[in-house]
Amino acid sequence: MQKTALVTGASAGIGEATVKRLLKDGYKVFAAARRLDRMAPIERLGAELIDLDLTDDASIVAAMEKLRAAAGRLDLLVNNAGYGSYGAIEDVPMEEARRQMEVNVFGLARLCQLATPLMRAQRSGTIVNVTSIGGKMGEPFGGWYHATKYAVEGFSDCLRMELRPFGIRVVVIEPGAIRTEWGGIAHRSLVERSGGSAYAPWALRHAAALSNAESGSFASPPEVVANTIARAVAARRPRIRYGTGGGAKVFLFLAHWLPDRWKDALMWRMSQSRRAD
């Protein structure tokens, strides 16, 4: 029987690369995102497109109903959708902070709720939650973003234990620096919110460092993450967490072993390593 996968955030970057890899591996793939116009290339490869807005519960429910009607089963859920909202915590409006939580945490959690009954009925399935090395180590001006990634790490640990009796696996993927749209979005939001505030001298240098991290030679292509997801899903007994791409393993090692004050000093120094344009 052909296995079925749902991949969120499939219009670009890691999500698009994951859809392509899973299609190559023989999955029937439902590719979900808001920007359907961007997904014609993966539709031509065989992906089924689903309109999905993670801030709208009706959209999430409708997406899962469409999948259920079309396939009747779900073997793999890849919760990849998300974005980085940056700015000093003081400067970010609470409306935007809530939206960041809705997309990166609550939308992901709602999909897990709706996917679980399908997988439980099969007594099998895998949920892959894409977090970040930012779920293990913070940085200045990314408070709301990092809060979401720390939240998904803890959420995934609890979910993994709850679903184990039903044969459902939960895997966390922790990417490092990846060449996607993420860096540009984070850069723009930081400049917009804190580029003219009391934090401006430091925020603008950090914005420059963000751009360099996501576009420089240090960053990995999104296919690296897609291949890691495919390897984890194919494993008979996958690891609980996979660090992958752009310095992930080094940062995760440091996050585990360095004292907190040393981590603060390291991240602040990296934050201020670039002069603002």
Topology (elements, then pairings):
Blueprint: E1 4-8, H1 13-24, E2 28-33, H2 40-45, E3 48-51, H3 57-71, E4 76-79, H4 94-122, E5 125-130, H5 143-163, E6 168-175, H6 182-194, H7 200-215, H8 222-234, E7 241-244, H9 248-257, H10 260-271
Parallel strand pairs: 1-2, 1-4, 2-3, 4-5, 5-6, 6-7
Helix pairs in contact: 1-8, 3-4, 4-5, 6-7
Provide tags for this entry.
7-stranded parallel beta sheet, alpha/beta, 277 residues, 7 strands
Give structural notes.
With 277 residues, the chain is α/β, with parallel strands linked by helices. It contains 10 helices and 7 strands. A 7-stranded parallel β-sheet has the order 3-2-1-4-5-6-7, sandwiched between helices. Helix 1 crosses helix 8 and helix 6 packs antiparallel against helix 7. The longest helix has 29 residues. The radius of gyration is 18 Å and the shape is globular.
Question: How would you sum up this structure in a few lines?
Answer:
The chain has 277 residues and is of the alpha/beta class.
Order of helices and strands: EHEHEHEHEHEHHHEHH
| Percent range for β-strand residues | 5-15%
Low-pLDDT stretches are none
Structural class by helix and strand composition: alpha/beta
Order of strands across the main sheet: 3-2-1-4-5-6-7
C-alpha Rg, in Å? 18 Å
Number of helices: 10
Q: What is the typical, i.e. mean, pLDDT? A: 95
Largest sheet: 7 strands, parallel
Q: What is the percent of helical residues?
A: 40-55%
Count of strand segments: 7
End-to-end C-alpha gap: 55 Å
Taken from the alpha-carbon principal axes, the silhouette is globular
